[in-house]
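Just scan this pair:

***
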Amino acid sequence: MAAPENGAAQFNATGEAVAKGTLVLEMPEVPRERIEAIIQCYPPERRYALAVMQDMQHSFDYLPRTALELLAEYMSFPLAQLYSMATSYKALSLKPKGRHIIKVCDGTACHIKASLNIIDELDRLLGIRPGDVTPDGQFSLETVNCLGSCALAPVVLIDGTHYGKVTLEKLSGILESYKPGGECDG
């Protein structure tokens, strides 16, 4: 985490200005050699841009700016178009995600069954809102339109595991199992 120095302006991982005193997640450094190794696996043709970005996402858990710049140069592709692609696909992220990804369904059935209360409780327990990562990098929170488990509303998905009929009382126990040393922390 970066702390403001001498009253200097602070920016979050996506370059947006943040309120004074807000914790800012520092972007992990990705060695240029690792980026180049992924890029070199593909011919320098634009049709492979998405595949390269998917491989980068898989390797780094986000798309580092340096990686997109190198890809744009390698493929003679405008950087703005790569950013457009990266922001169009939910599977791609321009900022690092937490070790454990929490997805809260906010589809119609889950919304009616108080999914917003689940989100508020996650904020209380972890101190994050949708799109944020905990300061320790353990959890990130996202909302999704539907997880296809409407009969189990409200539904929370953590690292691919579905939790149905989640209550505020159950939520802290579920999270405990994903904290370091918990049964799901692997």
